[in-house]
Amino acid sequence: MDTDELDPWSATTAELYRTLRARLDGDDPAVLATIVDVDGSAYRRQGAKMIVVPGDDSYGSITAGCLEGPVVDLANAVLDEGRARVETFDLMNGDEWGLGLGCNGVIDILLEPLDNNFGVALDALANDQPVTVLTAVESSDGNVTVGDRTVLDSDLSSLGDADRNRLPSELVSNESDVVESLRESASSKAVQLETSAGTVSVFVDHLEPVPELLLFGNQNDVHPVARIGREAGFRVVVASSRGSRSDGSDFPYATRVVSTHPTEIDEAVRAPENTYAVLMSHNFLDDRLALETLLEGTSVPYVGLMGPRKRFEEMQTEFEQEGVQLSQSQLERVSTPVGLDLGSDEPIQIALSIVSETLAVHNDRNGGRLKCREGPIHERVTTP
């Protein structure tokens, strides 16, 4: 499924990465717009991205839609100038941009021509490796200009500086504590740093690989889960029992389709800590074997199991009869009945329930109602 088949405004991070890679490979110009700072409330937070291509086309969202027009106009100017810039939008002043918004936030947006420097980050992400992108967004130091960048891998080693000036080593070394802090919270934030020749504001953008949703099964109910999972931003992998449907064309929303035995399903897991599995073969023995394999052979944080509680209790009984004792930590990774309580039994709504729970686990949330949550919706990022 191509990005063009989706609503461009609601493109997920996974679709944005695919679009960026395609444009780099095709040597097609584009501008990447990234929120680098938010003062107050906003629809999206630091790190949200949008791609603008020549003309008026864009992919992704950085606001609820109110700023996309002005950002597209600015992006076209950036393409003409060929250099990065930062623009501030004061949404508390409803008349400043002629939009009458009256929102409660001030947003700084970095607009930069797409080049191979960001391709270095994309390559690492495609290999399931997190990266941290350090970009100068404001500078009074004559040796540093807006857009200068260093990309760091998980060991804080530079991944290269193709097509872009690298940040001074003193800035990078001074940010090690900040990088580690943001990496732990998978967050992004602009920080002010002093150099021997002035002050530089550096946007520390931590990027995680796209999470995978592993679906074990080949019945019709796999399709709505795969569809919603893809549209929610997961890379969907369908693992079909050998001898069953396992052709990619049978599962158009899947990124990968593999044929496997339930005792070998762990071989379909590329990045365990970033994979979320749902067992839905509707075959008791296959699901039980797949469950045991994932719990004992991988560190996947979530295994959703279709069916009622009694079905899982019967599996546990068989485990015990075979001398297999699941630990408390293993049991905590199992979710059955799978999904959030949305009160519906229609296939598409069951799929929504399953993907919603998976997304909540991925984001370390419990899936409760926002009206019952105390404090801000989005966590406020703090750094050393």
Distance between the termini: 42 Å
| Low-pLDDT segments | none
Mean pLDDT: 88
CATH homologous superfamily identity of the largest domain: NAD(P)-binding Rossmann-like Domain
Summing up helix and strand content along with how strands pair, one would put the structural category as alpha/beta
**SSE string, helices as H and strands as E:** HEEEHEEHEEHHEEEHEEEHEHHEH
- Give the count of structural domains: 3
Strand order of the largest sheet: 12-11-10-13-14-15
Q: Level of helix content? A: 25-40%
Share of residues in strands: 15-25%
Q: Mind telling me which CATH architecture of the largest domain this is?
A: 3-Layer(aba) Sandwich
Give the oligomeric state.
single chain
Helix segment tally? 10
Task: Tell me about this structure.
There is one protein chain. With 384 residues, this protein is of the alpha/beta class. It folds into three domains: 3-114, no CATH class; 118-207, no CATH class; 212-362, NAD(P)-binding Rossmann-like Domain (Rossmann fold), CATH 3.40.50.720. Helix content is 29%, strand content 24%. The protein contains ten helices and 15 strands. The strands form three sheets. A six-stranded parallel sheet has the order 12-11-10-13-14-15, sandwiched between helices. It has a five-stranded antiparallel sheet with strand order 3-2-1-5-4. Helix 6 (222-231) crosses helix 10 (347-362). The radius of gyration is 23 Å and the shape is elongated. The two termini are 42 Å apart. This is XdhC/CoxI family protein. InterPro entries: MoCofactor_Util/Proc, XdhC_CoxI, XdhC_Rossmann_dom.
